[in-house]
Predict the 3D structure of the following.
Amino acid sequence: MISMTKRSKQASAWGAAVFLLMLVPIVTLRNDVLSFLLTFFLYITLAQSWNLIGGYAGQMNLGHGAFFGLGVIISRHLWLGVGLPIPLAIMGGALAALLMGLIIGIPAFRLKDIYFVMGTLVFAEILRIIVYTNLPRASVMPMNYLTHYSLVPRYYLSLVVAVIAIVVMYVISKAKVGLGLTAIREDEDAAGCLGVGLLRHKLFAFTVSTFFAGMAGGVFAYYSVAVTAGHMFEHLWTFDAVIIAFVGGVGTILGPVVGAVFFAFLKQFLSMYMPEGVHVAVFGVLFILVVLLLPGGLIELIRKIRGR
Amino acid sequence: MIQMFAQSFVNGVNLGALYGLAAVGLSLAFGVMKMMNVAHGEFIMLGSYIAYWLFMLFDIDPFLGIPIVAFVLFLIGAVLYKLLFSGMVTFHEELKLKNSLLVAFGLFLVLPEVAKLLWTGDERMLTPSYSGSSFGLFGVRFGYVPTIGLLVSLAVITLLQLFLNKTYFGKSARATADNWKAAKMMGVNDARTYIITFAIGAALAGIAGVLVGLSGALTPGMGIGWTIKALIVVVLAGMGSIGGAFIAGLILGVAEAVSAIFMGPYAITVGLILFLLILMFRPQGLFARG
């Protein structure tokens, strides 16, 4: 009974937060505020999606940025090139990322530990080079789109995608498949012996993860006025997701959200007073500190302080 | 046509020696400590910039400055190891690998920003008076810088092999690589072996950095490309195989240079695809023992 009230308390806190965020464009139309929150939601989606494969399943995927990039260029092409409505275009980009996840996942999961890390990193590097060579030009929104450009629908889209990502990850983490993933993370051989289908579980987590990375890409394609394809495939997108998940608390639902809040605000704050790029160094140091001293991330710190 | 192949081959050997040298330090650290230093390329970047400083501020020729760069990187490596990595040595192997990877990943984020503060984001060049000049032999051009670079790489690798095979420290490092528990029981000071091995790995990266700096532009973000190159070479050779790493570097360099004739800008992907194939079908590498 107590846990029920705790859970409903949590649910209402989440609901209230989302409700307040929905009110923001009604209260203010300031571009900087909306842009800031929109990127913050994007970070949540990216980190949350990486967290499923990297945190819950414990497979350090360093090719996440490639799936984001794929989502961006495919949905951008479907939207501006083919002329599909934006929800369909985003869905197309996300499905393309999922498909690529399936194609890459089957051979990649033959690799374990460090080999998986290097394999995914190199896969992303190959795609990056190919895209850089083939699509050197920036894709700029056509004039008639620009004249009607408004941040409000983009804001809501980014919010909705982030909420869906959180809900889906929550449901997976509570379901049997989520427990299977955690078992694989803790001890792959033991999990296999107990009848957890290793490849099946990993592929499921990987494709859901790449699907949401593609969704995040679609949101970015809709939001960004000019897109250089090569830049969308930079490893930076992967690294941001990894940092956010780890600093917030890897392998939890709340972690990536807390991490994204922290990341977005600190980045904004540092960029006001420091030369550009300093936030990366600060996060690098934080990342090292978390790995060495606080493996549970910020949410562990919060729990410790509240528990005292 | 034959001339073009010969020229590409020579260019490939020069490039490959650099790849080999870049990878040897990573391979050494991995072989002895089972730690994966993905900030290895960042050490290479630092080596380049220190050579640049020596050249611009003190007018020291980059090749003659190599011992200084190696020494500075040795110190940096030792300090970073002591601060960040030394706590992990007692961990279970899998956890040690993962944590070292993550901590090195953090370093990989921090060091380019440090470089940006010290040297700005502008491209720098390391150009002594003789860079760009070359001599001809059998109709093939040999640049002075790459040729001396090749000799330096060969000398460094030979010295490293001698050091590992003939000295007490080298033997203790190899013993630790094979079985650290047994080595410890035989009286090997494992803590000292680890810190020196890590520092030597960084010093090797520094030496590679000088040669890298001589062959192209210096930017704070150049490290990741070299980390990826070094990883490819290490996997080609087999994790921890040091002589093999150098040969694998040569193979990769020649493969890239020769395939550039047919594939143009996609030649870089040759090494990457080679890497994935090796990973899939021969994960123990080409030159692994046992």
